[in-house]
Design brief:
Low-confidence stretches: none
Radius of gyration: 20 Å
Shape: globular
CATH class of the largest domain: Alpha Beta
CATH architecture of the largest domain: 3-Layer(aba) Sandwich
Number of strands: 13
Strand order of the largest sheet: 3-2-1-4-5-6-7
Largest sheet: 7 strands, parallel
Strand content: 15-25%
Number of domains: 2
Distance between the termini: 9 Å
Order of helices and strands: EHHEHEHEHEEHEHEHEEHEHEHEHHH
Helix content: 25-40%
Structural class: alpha/beta
CATH superfamily of the largest domain: Glycogen Phosphorylase B
Length: 336
């Protein structure tokens, strides 16, 4: 079987598809991956045959993919939620396709077309990586879903030295993701966390490290870290509410403090706060003191077990979802 994966050329949209693509490859199928060149390196490193369809650098439109479908003649197209054009191209070519989620079904008004509203491809099944107990209730009730366990994927970047010599103090991980971080917000969060009796690891992401002012000794700042390796070691995660970091922290049962900035982050923060697995600070509520106060409450030595227990229940739910390898074995049923 030949399977074509397609995604927007960004970490937040490509990385959620990689575990299943690897599992499909490991199951003996031929895998190709259509995306802009920015994400080709990790795809090529795992033998997923990346290519840039048409003139696409970020978004892929139906007309970009149609010649490639004629060339490759895949048996199945797995297209993520951010690429309705790929779904339309597969539909027009008569090729079965599956939507692949990147988190909770996102709300309207964030700059992406809802996959459940596209009349040309309505009814296609969804590979859903979000735990059902936190998923949009209308989506659960009306769409065809294939549950798929989210598996954290990140490129290999060595963990900061302090993590390997882990002391008795708790570990806090801070990241603002790849799209919305600013030096001002990052510095505010660092100032708040530096006041706590904890080790702090910061992934600066899109904020150049040299733009940050003096960093305390117990705060380690890197441009990127291996989030998949770091999250299981963290006691609290402070982040922007992006789907990848949110799911990664949920999967290991770590309490979260969310500082949403845009896109689907506000909806994610609302959902997690309502479920009691995280604390949310909206932009007007964010200052160093507020961040320090909320994280202090969640540190294990302070006995606040409510969010920690709730997070562990979600982690157990995620662990019970079908693995990428199990779902890969099912995919021939959806192919031509």
């Amino acid at each position: 079987m030949r399977v074509l994966f397609a995604s927007l050329a960004s970490v937040g949209h490509t990385f959620p598809l990689i575990p299943l693509a690897i599992a499909v490859r490991d199951a003996g199928h031929e895998v190709h991956f259509a995306a802009g060149p920015e994400v080709h390196a990790p795809l090529a490193a795992h033998g997923l045959r990346p290519f840039r369809p048409g003139d696409a650098f970020y978004e892929v439109y139906a007309e970009d993919l149609e010649p490639e479908l004629a060339r490759l003649r895949p048996d199945l197209v797995v297209h993520e939620w951010g690429l309705p054009g790929a779904a339309v191209a597969a539909q027009r070519a008569g090729i079965p396709g599956l939507w692949h989620g990147f988190g909770r079904l996102f709300p309207e008004g964030i700059g992406l077309e809802l996959p459940t509203r596209n009349a040309e491809v309505v009814g296609r099944p969804h590979l859903d990586i979000w735990p059902p107990s936190l998923q949009d209730k209308d989506f659960l009730a009306t769409e065809r879903r294939i549950e798929l366990r989210p598996v954290a994927f990140s490129t290999s970047a060595p963990l900061p030295e302090l993590v390997s010599r882990r002391a008795s103090r708790p570990l806090i991980y801070l990241t603002l993701g790849t799209a919305f971080g600013t030096p001002e917000l990052l510095e505010t969060a660092i100032a708040g966390l530096a006041a706590l009796d904890a080790e702090v690891v910061v992934a600066a992401g899109r904020v150049p490290v040299e733009q940050l002012r003096e960093i305390p000794d117990h705060v380690s700042v890197r441009q990127w870290v291996s989030q998949a390796e770091l999250l299981p070691l963290a006691d609290v995660v402070v982040h922007h509410g992006g789907s990848g970091t949110t799911l990664g922290a949920l999967a290991v049962g770590v309490p979260q403090v969310l500082l949403p900035q845009g896109a689907d982050q506000f909806a994610n923060a609302d959902t997690l706060a309502a479920a009691g697995v995280a604390v949310r600070l909206l932009p007007g509520e964010v200052d160093a003191g507020a961040i320090a106060e909320q994280v202090h409450r969640l540190l294990p030595q302070h006995g606040n077990a409510e969010q920690r227990d709730a997070a562990r229940l979600i982690a157990k739910e995620i662990a019970g979802m079908p693995s990428p390898a199990a779902v890969a074995r099912l995919l021939p049923e959806y192919a031509a």
